[in-house]
Amino acid sequence: MKDLVSLQQVIYKTIEDIELWQDVLQLFCKLTGAKKGIITLRDRTTAELVVPADVESDLSSPLLYGFSNEEIGGYIEHYIAFDPWTEFEKLYHPSTPFALSKYVKYEKIVESPFWDWLEPQGVNDTVVLDIGTSSPNWVAMNLYYDGQNPAIKRKILRYTAKFQSVMQEVWALGQKVRAAQLEPNRLGYFLDQQPDPSVLLSPEGKIILANSKAEQLFNAPDTIVSRAEAEIIIQDKKLKKQYDNIMRLIKDMPGAKFDEQLDLTTGDFSLSLALIEKAEDQIGVDKAARLLTIKRLSKSIACIWETPGLTKRERQLVEFIANGGRVVDFSNSFNLSKSTSHFHWSNVKKKLQVTDRSEIVAKHELYLKEV
What we know:
With about 375 residues, the protein is an alpha+beta fold.
């Protein structure tokens, strides 16, 4: 009884210190007779191991107990390809703990290349259970033992079933605590790496942080998305209605069902809204930040001398000026009198609503940037 209390206490301490999961694995092994334990990220579709970069580099992790560096290295580099258990962890998600010997018999294990990894460790079976989610993966706990001893198997199944729901709750709380402890500049760094104007929003739609690209967009003279203090202001009525509806929809939707990016488009702008990570507090209140990405759409514009209404000669003149020429040079190049060239130039200014050559050059440079 005392050991069970100690186990539960250590499980709760992992909320503040993720490295204490190693102690949890050790206590499970002590209570049940299991020899080794591991907590891993698994791909939600394939159940395959997601190997963190630090584990791959130094072969150590606070989520391991009882494994040597050589054993972990051998598994990652070679034996992972022969692991016969992964297929059944995919087919039968361990919502409740089960032993893999239920699906892969001892005789089959002995005949497989995987046995070369298992036998020296004195283990031939494992109990697996789901202890949490780390989007977009799930978190597996595996306890390894000698499957020839049925008493050990029964103990592992009994104790993991007893503590599974507690561990799931604690894992989720630990993730939230770790997220809250992130340095503010980490979020700023994340936003600054986004290629487009991006804003972090609270569940209420208030601006938490905006990257420099977003601030520039907010202040652009032709923008339809701006800010007033912590509020997003959308001038386009159609887009604002869509945006308000989407924010309302996400707020009313359980976090588990919102796992996709939502896109809104109008005119020259596209808005994308996504959750950074699903998160609720202990009573289920939504705490997840929203990532709002704002894009200017590429305009399907023609070069300025293709503006409708220009005559052939006027188009020639506009193209000439757009590429840096002067009206007087145009006269010489096309063998026109100065008065004729200036007559065409006068018509061009009226049709294009410009006052001098620099405006045509500027519009042409903008076109070149967008094609």
